[in-house]
Amino acid sequence: MSTEELEAFQVFAETLNFTKAAERLAISQPALHVKIQKISKDLGQTLYTKNGRNLHLTTQGIQLAKYARESLRREADFRSALRGQGTSQPVTLSAGAGAYLYLLGPALREFRQSCGAPLHLLTADRSQTLDDLTTGRAQVGVTVLPSPHPTLSSTRLRSIPSTLVVPKEHPLARKKKLSLESLAGLPLIVPSKGKPFREVLESFFSKYDVPLNVSMEANGWELMLHFTALGFGATIVNGCCRLPRECRGIELPDLPKAQYFVLSQKENFLSESALLLKGCLIRQGKRD
Predict the structure, then answer these.
(1) CA gap 87, 150 in Å, rounded
(2) Number of domains in the chain
(3) HEC-encoded secondary structure of the chain
(4) CA–CA separation, 125 vs 108, rounded Å?
(5) CA atoms of 111 and 277, how far apart (whole Å)
(6) What range does the domain containing 15 cover?
(7) Core-most of 80, 94, 141, 179, by most CB within 10 Å?
Protein backbone atom coordinates (compact mmCIF):
# COMPACT_ATOMS: atom_id res chain seq x y z
CA MET A 1 0.00 0.00 0.00
CA SER A 2 1.46 3.38 -1.01
CA THR A 3 2.16 6.26 1.34
CA GLU A 4 -0.42 8.30 -0.56
CA GLU A 5 -3.08 5.67 0.05
CA LEU A 6 -2.19 5.39 3.73
CA GLU A 7 -2.41 9.16 4.14
CA ALA A 8 -5.76 9.26 2.36
CA PHE A 9 -7.22 6.57 4.60
CA GLN A 10 -5.79 8.13 7.76
CA VAL A 11 -7.46 11.46 7.01
CA PHE A 12 -10.71 9.74 6.05
CA ALA A 13 -10.63 7.71 9.30
CA GLU A 14 -10.11 10.87 11.36
CA THR A 15 -12.98 12.77 9.77
CA LEU A 16 -15.35 9.98 8.67
CA ASN A 17 -16.55 12.52 6.14
CA PHE A 18 -15.57 12.39 2.46
CA THR A 19 -16.07 16.12 1.91
CA LYS A 20 -13.91 17.21 4.87
CA ALA A 21 -11.26 14.58 4.17
CA ALA A 22 -11.04 15.58 0.50
CA GLU A 23 -10.61 19.23 1.50
CA ARG A 24 -7.74 18.35 3.85
CA LEU A 25 -6.08 16.24 1.17
CA ALA A 26 -6.67 18.91 -1.52
CA ILE A 27 -8.31 16.44 -3.88
CA SER A 28 -11.85 16.04 -5.15
CA GLN A 29 -14.42 14.04 -3.21
CA PRO A 30 -14.95 11.53 -6.08
CA ALA A 31 -11.17 11.00 -6.28
CA LEU A 32 -11.00 10.26 -2.56
CA HIS A 33 -13.95 7.89 -2.80
CA VAL A 34 -12.16 5.98 -5.57
CA LYS A 35 -9.00 5.75 -3.42
CA ILE A 36 -10.88 4.34 -0.43
CA GLN A 37 -12.76 1.85 -2.60
CA LYS A 38 -9.48 0.73 -4.20
CA ILE A 39 -7.89 0.18 -0.78
CA SER A 40 -10.94 -1.81 0.31
CA LYS A 41 -10.84 -3.94 -2.85
CA ASP A 42 -7.08 -4.56 -2.61
CA LEU A 43 -7.40 -5.72 1.00
CA GLY A 44 -10.61 -7.65 0.37
CA GLN A 45 -12.21 -6.02 3.42
CA THR A 46 -15.11 -3.70 4.15
CA LEU A 47 -13.48 -0.73 5.87
CA TYR A 48 -16.53 1.35 6.81
CA THR A 49 -20.29 1.13 7.02
CA LYS A 50 -22.97 3.76 6.61
CA ASN A 51 -25.89 4.35 8.98
CA GLY A 52 -28.03 7.14 7.62
CA ARG A 53 -25.62 10.03 7.09
CA ASN A 54 -23.07 8.69 9.57
CA LEU A 55 -20.04 6.63 8.60
CA HIS A 56 -18.43 4.14 10.98
CA LEU A 57 -15.18 2.24 10.65
CA THR A 58 -15.41 -1.54 10.76
CA THR A 59 -13.01 -3.53 12.93
CA GLN A 60 -10.78 -3.90 9.87
CA GLY A 61 -11.04 -0.17 9.18
CA ILE A 62 -9.94 0.63 12.74
CA GLN A 63 -6.98 -1.72 12.33
CA LEU A 64 -6.00 -0.10 9.04
CA ALA A 65 -6.32 3.41 10.50
CA LYS A 66 -3.98 2.43 13.33
CA TYR A 67 -1.52 0.89 10.87
CA ALA A 68 -1.64 3.98 8.66
CA ARG A 69 -0.92 6.35 11.57
CA GLU A 70 1.98 4.25 12.83
CA SER A 71 3.47 3.75 9.36
CA LEU A 72 3.27 7.45 8.43
CA ARG A 73 4.70 8.46 11.80
CA ARG A 74 7.63 6.05 11.45
CA GLU A 75 8.35 7.20 7.90
CA ALA A 76 8.33 10.86 8.93
CA ASP A 77 10.64 10.14 11.86
CA PHE A 78 12.99 8.19 9.59
CA ARG A 79 13.15 11.02 7.05
CA SER A 80 13.84 13.56 9.79
CA ALA A 81 16.58 11.37 11.25
CA LEU A 82 18.25 11.05 7.84
CA ARG A 83 18.33 14.84 7.58
CA GLY A 84 19.84 15.03 11.07
CA GLN A 85 16.82 16.96 12.36
CA GLY A 86 15.65 14.50 15.01
CA THR A 87 11.98 13.61 15.24
CA SER A 88 9.54 16.26 14.04
CA GLN A 89 6.34 14.27 14.43
CA PRO A 90 4.04 15.26 17.32
CA VAL A 91 3.61 12.95 20.28
CA THR A 92 -0.06 12.64 21.15
CA LEU A 93 -1.18 12.19 24.76
CA SER A 94 -4.80 11.46 25.67
CA ALA A 95 -5.96 12.22 29.23
CA GLY A 96 -8.70 13.91 31.23
CA ALA A 97 -8.74 17.62 31.96
CA GLY A 98 -8.28 16.92 35.68
CA ALA A 99 -5.17 14.84 35.02
CA TYR A 100 -3.67 17.66 32.96
CA LEU A 101 -4.50 20.24 35.60
CA TYR A 102 -3.43 18.40 38.74
CA LEU A 103 -1.16 15.45 37.88
CA LEU A 104 0.77 15.70 34.66
CA GLY A 105 2.27 19.20 34.64
CA PRO A 106 5.73 18.31 36.03
CA ALA A 107 6.11 15.32 33.69
CA LEU A 108 5.09 17.37 30.64
CA ARG A 109 7.56 20.09 31.66
CA GLU A 110 10.33 17.48 31.91
CA PHE A 111 9.42 16.15 28.46
CA ARG A 112 9.45 19.63 26.94
CA GLN A 113 12.88 20.35 28.42
CA SER A 114 14.38 17.13 27.04
CA CYS A 115 12.65 16.73 23.68
CA GLY A 116 11.89 19.06 20.79
CA ALA A 117 9.06 16.98 19.34
CA PRO A 118 5.70 18.79 19.27
CA LEU A 119 3.28 17.65 21.98
CA HIS A 120 -0.36 17.19 20.99
CA LEU A 121 -2.81 16.90 23.90
CA LEU A 122 -6.22 15.25 23.56
CA THR A 123 -8.72 15.89 26.38
CA ALA A 124 -10.79 12.75 26.85
CA ASP A 125 -12.67 10.67 29.40
CA ARG A 126 -11.68 7.07 30.10
CA SER A 127 -13.66 5.55 27.24
CA GLN A 128 -12.31 8.05 24.71
CA THR A 129 -8.72 7.68 25.96
CA LEU A 130 -8.88 3.91 25.49
CA ASP A 131 -10.37 4.43 22.03
CA ASP A 132 -7.65 6.96 21.17
CA LEU A 133 -4.98 4.40 22.08
CA THR A 134 -6.69 1.47 20.38
CA THR A 135 -7.13 3.33 17.10
CA GLY A 136 -3.69 4.95 17.21
CA ARG A 137 -4.90 8.56 17.52
CA ALA A 138 -2.75 8.77 20.66
CA GLN A 139 0.54 7.06 21.44
CA VAL A 140 0.29 7.50 25.22
CA GLY A 141 -2.69 7.89 27.56
CA VAL A 142 -3.40 8.52 31.24
CA THR A 143 -6.70 7.52 32.79
CA VAL A 144 -8.32 5.87 35.82
CA LEU A 145 -8.80 2.09 35.65
CA PRO A 146 -9.74 -0.48 38.31
CA SER A 147 -6.81 -2.69 37.21
CA PRO A 148 -4.17 -2.87 34.44
CA HIS A 149 -5.62 -2.98 30.93
CA PRO A 150 -5.66 -6.49 29.41
CA THR A 151 -4.20 -5.53 26.01
CA LEU A 152 -2.45 -2.18 26.46
CA SER A 153 0.87 -1.64 28.19
CA SER A 154 -0.14 -0.37 31.67
CA THR A 155 1.93 1.19 34.46
CA ARG A 156 0.27 2.48 37.65
CA LEU A 157 0.97 6.19 38.01
CA ARG A 158 -0.71 7.15 41.31
CA SER A 159 -3.41 6.05 43.74
CA ILE A 160 -5.51 8.99 44.90
CA PRO A 161 -8.24 9.00 47.60
CA SER A 162 -11.63 10.59 47.12
CA THR A 163 -12.46 13.85 48.88
CA LEU A 164 -15.79 15.35 49.91
CA VAL A 165 -15.70 19.11 49.24
CA VAL A 166 -17.99 21.52 51.09
CA PRO A 167 -18.06 25.30 51.60
CA LYS A 168 -16.06 26.55 54.62
CA GLU A 169 -19.21 27.43 56.55
CA HIS A 170 -20.78 23.97 56.05
CA PRO A 171 -21.45 21.98 59.29
CA LEU A 172 -19.17 19.18 58.03
CA ALA A 173 -16.27 21.46 57.13
CA ARG A 174 -14.31 20.75 60.35
CA LYS A 175 -14.34 16.97 59.87
CA LYS A 176 -11.15 15.24 58.70
CA LYS A 177 -12.77 11.96 57.64
CA LEU A 178 -16.33 10.85 56.98
CA SER A 179 -18.06 7.54 56.31
CA LEU A 180 -20.51 7.20 53.45
CA GLU A 181 -23.31 6.77 55.98
CA SER A 182 -22.60 10.35 57.09
CA LEU A 183 -23.57 11.59 53.62
CA ALA A 184 -27.17 10.33 53.74
CA GLY A 185 -29.41 13.15 52.55
CA LEU A 186 -26.49 15.45 51.69
CA PRO A 187 -27.17 17.30 48.40
CA LEU A 188 -24.35 16.42 46.01
CA ILE A 189 -23.06 17.74 42.70
CA VAL A 190 -22.13 14.68 40.65
CA PRO A 191 -21.19 13.79 37.04
CA SER A 192 -24.00 12.96 34.64
CA LYS A 193 -25.39 9.44 34.23
CA GLY A 194 -23.07 7.04 32.44
CA LYS A 195 -19.85 8.81 33.41
CA PRO A 196 -17.31 6.46 35.07
CA PHE A 197 -17.10 8.37 38.37
CA ARG A 198 -20.90 8.60 38.59
CA GLU A 199 -21.03 4.82 38.24
CA VAL A 200 -18.46 4.44 41.04
CA LEU A 201 -20.51 6.69 43.32
CA GLU A 202 -23.77 4.89 42.57
CA SER A 203 -22.14 1.51 43.17
CA PHE A 204 -20.63 2.39 46.56
CA PHE A 205 -23.57 4.42 47.84
CA SER A 206 -25.74 1.40 47.01
CA LYS A 207 -23.25 -0.95 48.71
CA TYR A 208 -23.49 1.08 51.94
CA ASP A 209 -27.27 1.46 51.52
CA VAL A 210 -26.99 5.25 51.36
CA PRO A 211 -29.27 7.17 48.95
CA LEU A 212 -27.39 9.36 46.47
CA ASN A 213 -29.03 12.78 46.74
CA VAL A 214 -28.24 14.54 43.45
CA SER A 215 -28.65 18.31 43.60
CA MET A 216 -26.91 19.04 40.28
CA GLU A 217 -25.14 17.21 37.45
CA ALA A 218 -21.89 18.75 36.18
CA ASN A 219 -19.02 17.15 34.29
CA GLY A 220 -15.40 17.85 35.14
CA TRP A 221 -13.74 18.52 38.49
CA GLU A 222 -13.43 22.25 37.82
CA LEU A 223 -17.16 22.74 37.21
CA MET A 224 -18.14 20.56 40.15
CA LEU A 225 -15.85 22.53 42.48
CA HIS A 226 -17.02 25.84 41.02
CA PHE A 227 -20.66 25.12 41.80
CA THR A 228 -19.80 23.82 45.26
CA ALA A 229 -18.03 27.12 45.98
CA LEU A 230 -21.20 28.90 44.83
CA GLY A 231 -23.29 26.92 47.33
CA PHE A 232 -25.18 24.55 45.00
CA GLY A 233 -24.21 21.50 47.06
CA ALA A 234 -21.26 19.42 48.20
CA THR A 235 -19.25 17.38 45.72
CA ILE A 236 -16.84 14.45 45.64
CA VAL A 237 -13.61 14.73 43.65
CA ASN A 238 -10.19 13.13 43.48
CA GLY A 239 -7.92 14.21 46.32
CA CYS A 240 -5.37 15.72 43.93
CA CYS A 241 -7.74 18.53 42.92
CA ARG A 242 -6.91 22.10 43.90
CA LEU A 243 -9.82 23.31 46.01
CA PRO A 244 -11.34 26.80 45.80
CA ARG A 245 -10.37 28.96 48.77
CA GLU A 246 -14.05 29.05 49.79
CA CYS A 247 -14.07 25.25 50.30
CA ARG A 248 -12.73 22.52 52.55
CA GLY A 249 -11.90 18.88 51.72
CA ILE A 250 -12.76 15.82 53.83
CA GLU A 251 -11.35 12.34 53.19
CA LEU A 252 -13.81 9.54 52.33
CA PRO A 253 -12.02 6.25 53.17
CA ASP A 254 -15.07 4.15 52.22
CA LEU A 255 -14.60 5.04 48.55
CA PRO A 256 -11.86 3.26 46.58
CA LYS A 257 -8.75 5.18 45.60
CA ALA A 258 -8.60 6.28 41.98
CA GLN A 259 -5.91 4.23 40.22
CA TYR A 260 -4.29 6.35 37.50
CA PHE A 261 -2.44 4.37 34.83
CA VAL A 262 -0.02 5.38 32.08
CA LEU A 263 -1.12 3.44 28.99
CA SER A 264 0.33 2.86 25.56
CA GLN A 265 0.60 0.34 22.78
CA LYS A 266 3.41 -2.15 23.28
CA GLU A 267 6.70 -0.28 23.41
CA ASN A 268 8.08 -1.64 20.13
CA PHE A 269 5.27 0.31 18.38
CA LEU A 270 6.22 3.64 20.01
CA SER A 271 8.45 6.31 18.56
CA GLU A 272 11.52 7.44 20.49
CA SER A 273 9.69 10.61 21.55
CA ALA A 274 6.63 8.69 22.73
CA LEU A 275 8.87 6.40 24.78
CA LEU A 276 10.49 9.49 26.32
CA LEU A 277 7.08 10.96 27.22
CA LYS A 278 5.96 7.70 28.77
CA GLY A 279 9.18 7.56 30.80
CA CYS A 280 8.67 11.13 32.06
CA LEU A 281 5.14 10.28 33.21
CA ILE A 282 6.23 7.11 35.00
CA ARG A 283 9.15 8.82 36.73
CA GLN A 284 6.89 11.61 37.93
CA GLY A 285 4.51 9.05 39.39
CA LYS A 286 7.35 7.45 41.34
CA ARG A 287 8.43 10.82 42.74
CA ASP A 288 4.93 11.79 43.95
Answers:
(1) 30
(2) 2
(3) CCHHHHHHHHHHHHHCCHHHHHHHHCCCHHHHHHHHHHHHHHHCCCCEEEECCEEEECHHHHHHHHHHHHHHHHHHHHHHHHCCCCCCCCEEEEECHHHHHHCCHHHHHHHHHHCCCCEEEEECCHHHHHHHHHHCCCCEEEEECCCCCCCCEEEEEEEECEEEEEECCCCCCCCCECCHHHHCCCCEEECCCCCHHHHHHHHHHHHCCCCCCEEEECCCHHHHHHHHHCCCCEEEEECCCCCCCCEEEEECCCCCCEEEEEEECCHHHCCHHHHHHHHHHHHHHHHC
(4) 19
(5) 6
(6) 1-83
(7) 141
137-166, pLDDT tens digit by residue?
899 999 999 999 998 999 999 999 999 999
- Taking all residues of the chain, what is their mean pLDDT, rounded to a whole number? 90
Tally of residues, the chain? 288
State which of 83, 110, 140 marks the end of a domain. Answer: 83
